[in-house]
Amino acid sequence: MKKIRLIILVSLLFSVVSTVNAQYLENEPDVKQRIFWGGDIGLAFGSYTYVALNPVIGYRITNRISAGTGINYTFARYDYYGYEGSMYGGNVFASFTLIKNIGEALPVYEGTGVLLYGEYSVINISNYYDFPGTTIKWIGTPLAGIAFQTPVGSKSYMLLMFLYNFNETRLSPYPNPVIKACVQF
Length: 185
What we know:
By secondary structure, the chain is mainly beta. It is about 10% helix and about 50% strand.
């Protein structure tokens, strides 16, 4: 139920902020304008504490193709179980814009685009999971799916991604479906 509320909230946010036009890549930008950065954070506090920091940096190769890299850090503490651990690693990603502007068909989403998104993460889980007899320290996770991108400023975007984890196991840090939201500048 919480995921449905989040999707509705983000959808409403998209419709409110999507009136901003961020089509600056259409006019032959220089190298500096093609570089973007951003990421996401996750926070939860209480008997379950969760802190995630995932900065990214990328390059807009064309006005439809982007690629980049990022680092990942997650800390979790469960008071009930007396557990505390962290994960860290990195990722590479790429996206291809399928539809630049849904607003041409649906005026309420002016400026919102649809992207194909792929990511490969390598995460060190040795201090996060404690399975007897398990010596796995690193796990690779290929993710792919669709993303919705909407402008939130003249040169910034919010992305809402719906991804599938192609390596979902008991050790994988990402259960299916993977829903991510991030901001890029």
